[in-house]
Amino acid sequence: MAIDTKKCVGCSDCVVACQTENNVPIGYCRDWVVEVMDGTYPQLEIELRSERCNHCENSPCVRCCPTGASHYADGGIVLVTKNECIGCSACIASCPYDARYVHPDGYVDKCTFCLHRVKKGMQPACVAVCPTKCMYFGDLNDPRSDVSKILKKRKHKTLIPEAGTKPQLYFLI
Amino acid sequence: MKSRRQFIKISSLSAAGLIFGGGLLDSLASSILKENQSYFKGPFDFTRTPTYCEVCFWKCAGWVYKDENGRIKKIIGNDDDPNCNGRFCPRGTGGVGMHYDEDRLKTPLIRTEERGKQTFREASWDEALEYIASKMKEIKEEHGPECTALFSHGSGGKYFGKVIKGFGSRNIAAPSYAQCRGPREVAFIATYGSGVNSPENTDIRDTKCLVLIGAHIGENMHNGQVQEMSDAIDKGATIITVDPRFSTAASKSKFWLPIKPATDIALLLSWMHVIISEELYDKKYVEKYTYGFDQLKAHVKNFTPEWAYGITTIKPDQIRETARTMAHAAPAVLVHPGRHVTWYGDDTQRLRAVAILNALLGSWGRRGGFYNPDKASVPHYHLPPYPKPEKTWRDAMGGKYILADLALASGVCDASIPTPDLDCSIRGWIVNGTNLINTLPDQKKTIDAIQKLDLLAVVDTMPMEITGYADVVLPECVYLERYDSLRISQGREPSIALRMPAVDPLYNSKPAYWIARELAKKLDLLEYFPFETIEEELDWELKQVGSSLEEMQKIGVKRLEREVDDLYFADGEDIEFDTNTGKIELYSTVLEEEGFDPIPVYTPHPEPSEGFYRLIYGRAPMHTFSRTANNPNLTDLMSENSVWVNPKVAKEWDLKNDQYIYLENQDGVVSDFPIKVRVTERIRWDSVYMVHGFGHADKRLKRCFGKGVSDTQMITNVMIDPIMGGTGMRGNFVTFRFDNKKTEV
Ligand code: SF4
Ligand code: SF4
Ligand code: SF4
């Protein structure tokens, strides 16, 4: 997934769309918005980013999960199998991005890249709703996908690359 | 904005939020039992019903999805809808919370004791409507039927309007006019003979240069405009933002002009100066279509960027460079007229300056500027004529504000306060879907007017402050539970959209059509409601345009053919504008006739005194005025407002981030509630900023009661626009207080 920080307006539509799509209880979230401001008046810059699980290729959460509930699914998507999760929160401690939370029902929950939608050929809920169309989702291994094309064209970065997790979420800058 | 840090805090606090999580959790739990990997299945392929969103005036059309238990699950934009292109904004997506909000009004209420004390008793619909009808009849007998008024901001207005008009009054006002976009409409009508209306005919999608002057697209989520601004960014358009605050839009702009507040007209005049003196204007267009160029040229001769610098604090070279950038992009340039424009009382003149600047650049009627909108014409069933009232609120205004093309909510409010020089004293109000206490500036005056009334009937979904002053409160069901009149929007293509109920009304709430018709029955006005149900009326109307209720229930939105000519003026096309001269009036003959400046002039406005800061307010993308402040989904994203303070000011006052303080304005009004400080470089040192719509004082709004400060409470100085009666609200100054104890005078 790639997210264009030049277009995002920080409206949080992606957050509420994810909540209603995925039954995320009010008070919790799988995605969230970060505003980073730099400079002094009037020389200012703002970066707005919608963040979520990075679906890392080398993910510490999968490595440290004692039950195997955290695993890689098709296409490298990182998932948690709810009824295998014992809620020990080891993964939460290991994730450098704070992408996971304990669901009030006792298991750990996080972004699934809306696999249930993607399997039906739909876009993830956050991507589909974003009024600025600033998110691109698709197969990074397919050079013809929208996301590959935009990454080729634009400068981009990942978050906390020094953690060595190989994030699969790219921010266009 | 929802951030991880906030999230922890919210979850530790949000017992209230979880109340309604319960049902969702149940259904989630059962789907987990059924299938291990329930997230693959997505239990979410439900029946869907069409609606158009009621959370703001953009009225996006979408689909309401339910889960297998028949509960509303999510709302998604309709791909065929030109207003939203399949994408709702956060408020529309969070509209589900309007249905689930457990603080909703549940049953009709009748006041039993003194005003303002909120001692209501529950009543039946029949009893409540009977009460209203008999009060209205009393007013009619004693004072005349014209002494009643309707305030409305929402879809039910059409039906209550029929009742009021049939009853014999024309006092129908929406606060979206004098408190919001009125000056813009009057200015554009004076210049081009037509307003920009809603959704605005701004061609942002194809613009090469977008100029925002006090408009903060992206924080105001006028959906189509936000989407198109993003398209324009993709296509490499230059954005110029003029704002004392580093808005989200400013952060997307090539040029941000951090103007000193209240000096915009000086900047606009100076831009005109550059464009005319450097001969950058569209000569062919100006010559063919405009009137009064020579007068304008002479008028702006001395308004050099150096002159404007002293006033606006914008550097002369920046003024020149931005003017040239606009001219370079012309005619695909759009000096955006904004929407909430009632600032300093000379707002019609400021918007005139915007209109004139667009004319010099030749952008009206051109691609990337303003397109020619079209609107579906859906015939209405022929009704008997409405009685002509003997007088209206206008008579109470003593001949002022003649150029106001719609009724002024503040004017109707004023006309309710009997004074020796007002001759129309309004005695009864019906208020539908607008919280006048937080919408009209000068709360005290509004409350004074209410105290003089014989009848205040409020139809709303939520126990907003205004309901606390009502004699009768009628619970309207929310938009997800009802039919309403068709949405007929203007746009590049005309379209119609249907709203139908996804679920039955919760509690003892009812739709506006039913309420209005039942009231009409009691007033012997049934002739204005020939159809017994709204379904029949909608079906009749839809059949006139070749559709039907049945078809619309399936498709939700129908795009119709354009009936009028092209989106843009053809090259050299002859055009007659609907003005006195038939031309675009750079020099306004109509303003001259009425004794106003025919070309805008800059007048200095009062400035904050030592220790005070100009109060600027705006919008957050996840809320609409105060309407959404209690919505469980949206308060989860933003639950209170904060006051933005420049670090220099914070240092002087020793204010820290997240500290709570009170505000006091120039008239000694201290805020009811404290507000959180946000120390940020994003605001000038002479101003503070807050998001409008918070600081609710009604305890029945459990989630938002006492959260933040109501800017409306701080706005006691109202600068009236002499041309059309707009209520300028940016002439208020606040200082900080560490407690809210009354000071001894
Ligand atoms: S919906 Fe889009 S624009 Fe809004 S915050 Fe999310 S990513 Fe940004
Ligand atoms: S991809 Fe789906 S689960 Fe992940 S943040 Fe977006 S909406 Fe939520
Ligand atoms: S812009 Fe948002 S709140 Fe307004 S009608 Fe559209 S979806 Fe609803």
Automatic annotation (TrEMBL), chain B:
Pfam families: Molybdopterin, Molydop_binding. InterPro entries: Asp_de-COase-like_dom_sf, MoPterin_dinucl-bd_dom, Mopterin_OxRdtase, Mopterin_OxRdtase_4Fe-4S_dom, Prok_Mopterin_Oxidored, TAT_signal. Keywords: 4Fe-4S, Iron, Iron-sulfur, Metal-binding, Molybdenum, Oxidoreductase, Signal. Residues 46-103 form the 4Fe-4S Mo/W bis-MGD-type domain. GO terms for molecular function: 4 iron, 4 sulfur cluster binding; metal ion binding; molybdopterin cofactor binding; oxidoreductase activity. It comes from the Bacteria. CDD domains: MopB_CT_Thiosulfate-R-like (cd02778). Belongs to the prokaryotic molybdopterin-containing oxidoreductase family. PANTHER family: TETRATHIONATE REDUCTASE SUBUNIT A, TRIMETHYLAMINE-N-OXIDE REDUCTASE. This is Nitrate reductase. It comes from Ancylomarina longa.
